[in-house]
């Protein structure tokens, strides 16, 4: 929004200055709605930096301004920026800091529980009972198709919960599916869906409102999301079923083959071991760092793998992500 505001100011500045010379009694008022409201507020600040536009005012309807400026800056504009907000609209009350704080709090509360319960679902169903009460479970099932080992099939959290007798009244559950990393699409494709069960109509309405704030995915992303939810079926007589299955199986076998090649390559390197590739699109190699490198990391107050990851681009130009970032 800041870039947009500066771009608009640069293009419109000469025209506005000429208009004010022709009509000196006129005043400039910038008007915007939603994200445009946030941009309008920022544009007003930018224009008022110039002497000839110092009297510019702004009228913003349901602006997204809170997320684009500090509280101190927002307070400085109370005399020349007027906002109109529906009292029930949550979006204008959000800020980037608030969203980050909320996300951090939620992650701390449920992330470790979810990971533990999903693993338990795969190995020991009975152990799941201890963790199902009074939680909202949020699960992302992106890699349920590309599994490379036969003895570890994918287990749907919802299906297992239902088999244990838990209903919507017992377990609020949110399930996500994306096309950007599954075999249906490729990285960079944006599209997906979420299923929410066990929530009251009032909560569902607020979730739908929050989801509706996001921009729509592009056409190809929407087509891929539709394919995820409703792939070609032989039972329906779909003509594309055979070609779909052929392409699907080809992609999955290619992913499995490349994962195995990389796994073997990592394990062949001195000082590196790699866990077996069992699915998804990740490998987790372990670098056995010498004690001197570990000591150097401790001396600067960071974990060894993060220290290594920061030094590696400087020495080789290779960028990696430290494993500690994955928990």
Q: What is the topological layout?
A:
Layout: H1 2-22, E1 29-33, H2 35-48, E2 57-61, H3 71-76, E3 81-84, H4 96-123, E4 137-140, H5 157-163, E5 173-178, E6 192-197, H6 201-213, H7 219-229, H8 241-267, E7 272-274, E8 285-287, H9 291-299, H10 304-316
Parallel strand pairs: 1-2, 2-3, 4-5
Antiparallel strand pairs: 5-6, 7-8
Helix pairs in contact: 1-2, 9-10
Description:
Its cofactor is pyridoxal 5'-phosphate. One of its GO terms (molecular function) is transaminase activity. Keywords: Aminotransferase, Pyridoxal phosphate, Transferase. This is Alanine aminotransferase 2 mitochondrial. Homodimer. There is one protein chain. The chain is mostly helical and 327 residues long. The chain has three domains: 90 residues, no CATH class; 134 residues, Type I PLP-dependent aspartate aminotransferase-like (Major domain) (Aspartate Aminotransferase, domain 2, 3-Layer(aba) Sandwich), CATH 3.40.640.10; 85 residues, Aspartate Aminotransferase, domain 1, CATH 3.90.1150.10. It has ten helices and eight strands. The chain has a three-stranded parallel beta sheet, covered by helices on one side. A three-stranded mixed beta sheet has the order 4-5-6. About 6% of the residues have low confidence.
Main features:
327 residues, Alanine aminotransferase 2 mitochondrial, Fungal_lipase-type, Aspartate Aminotransferase, domain 1, Aspartate Aminotransferase, domain 2, mainly alpha, transferase, 10 helices, pyridoxal phosphate, 3-stranded parallel beta sheet, transaminase activity, extended, 3-stranded mixed beta sheet, 3 domains
